[in-house]
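ARCHIVE CARD
Drawer: 12
Card no.: 0347
Subject: one protein chain, sequence and derived structure
Cross-reference: see card 0346
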Amino acid sequence: MSIYAGRFFVFSILDWLIVDAIVQFFEPANLPRRERLVHRRAVRLRKVFQTMGGASIKIGQQLSIRSDVLPYAYCTELEKLLDQGDPFPAEHARQVIEKQTGRPLSATFRGPFDFRPVGAASIACVYRAQLQDTREWVALKIRRPKIVEIYNTDLRAIYTILWGLEFTTLVRPGTYTEAFYRELSLMLLEELDFRVEARYQELFRRYYRKRKSLKVTAPEILHDLSGEEIIVSKFVSGVWVKELIQVVDSGDDRQLARLADQQIDPRRVAQRLIRGCFYGFFECPFFHGDPHPGNILVQPGNRIVMLDFGACGVFAEKERDQLRQLYAYQGEEDIGGMVQCVIRLTEPLPPIDLDAFRRELEYAWWHGFYGIKSKHAQWWERTSFRLWVALLRLVRKYRVPIPLNVLRMIRATLLYDSVAA
């Protein structure tokens, strides 16, 4: 990783010194020089993570939510990283399953086990199989071999890079980089323990069952077949939300009629997503931290199934109170009150000019709020997008480290808002 980091910095310097002028001569772009350089560096960084592959792709994805550390252009580009990988050897999958069940594969599943994964990501591969006793179809998510060792090696490399940046004064030493490294490590290593993910999924089903009117759930976990390296859950099917968005965007009457035949109404799905989001924030002990369109299935009757609980956020009651108050102030159109709540969510604050920070944030949020209230704004202006992006831009400017769970809340809110809109 250190070699790739060195190449990234060398090419970035060359781009700044001479390459940008050459590119502009042959392919002039109507953008300021600073924006051109930032865009190309962001693309270059994404390609570095793609080239390294494996655990590095997951690290790049995790960095994509760190808008308090990286400029928004970098985060947007890193979101394009595909969480996919090549299938691992079938023998590894067999060993994990038989180690967990304590018996041969044929004693647990009917017929020959299909070792062709239905999904291959940077952390795990997912297989589909039929149980021997109940004949139910299940999904098996199996962790990649030696992935823990790979992650630990990559984290040590990141620590070395951060130390080098501080030593050369390119990054100011202190708690800012320490907090970033600590929370990045926590995010990555938490996703590797499938027992934690299985518990989140189980609790999500239990809490959302209490609000049946929401019609939001998750696949049922088979705990006797699951463990640290494997999660087995009942197989679910439906329409992916990313497909639903494509149908709505295209305005294809035939596809919309097919959805209507399944009693799937995009407007009702959007409403349930937002209501489910608020229930997770305000009444559950945790919330789904990565509700992107590839993690949401819609079943007939507008029933929503959430997948992949590797990134969940946990709020204390104090934090939930601040979030409730923020939305109450929004209803009263009190931007100053909203800003105070957000500042409290980021505490403890480092030594900064708090009055200047507050004034800039209030100014930016007023402009974002105009779009939310306007009946003639674009769809993306009627979401919380401009509010949160303004906050993240200012916390970078003032070097304010944001707690991991607040970052996950912001990411989840942006995703729920965008998908629903």
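Annotation on reverse: Strands lie at 119-120, 124-130, 137-143, 216-217, 230-234, 239-240, 286-288, 296-299, 303-306, 312-314. The mean pLDDT is 82.
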